[in-house]
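Let's practice the habit of predicting before peeking. Look at the sequence and jot down your guess about where helices and strands might fall. Then scroll down.
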Amino acid sequence: MKKILIVLVLMLFAAEESSAGGMSKKGIFHIATAPLITISGIYSSAQVLRNSDHEPTRAAAITDLVILGLQSSGGLVTLISNDDISPVVRRIHRIIGFGVIASGLWLSVANTVDDRVPRSARIAAYGQTVMAVGPQLLFSF
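Done guessing? Here is the structure:
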């Protein structure tokens, strides 16, 4: 946990330094929560692939991993390019964010139905779904 917090703080400093005018509070919140969303999704999906032999649950885990990878790469492109990025890329990043919510919800339901999934993986999937809603609401208003 300490390593995760250290990485988050370093990311915040790096993002602040790369941003010419400084980051907004929304941007700092998003950079702080994005790794938590990704880590919880990866943990839950890995536990499903490790412990479950139920095909729908495994499909939900694989889908979640793919969408998290797409979203993370889009987020890094958005972060690195700063304000020079086209609005189309930002819109695609937001649309994939809805996919993260949907895949997290699917994984949560699949984990609840499958008895072989550990309780910690279920909680991580619920957490991913709830935390993924935050940035969508934050940047919508």
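How did you do? DSSP finds five helices and no strands in the chain.
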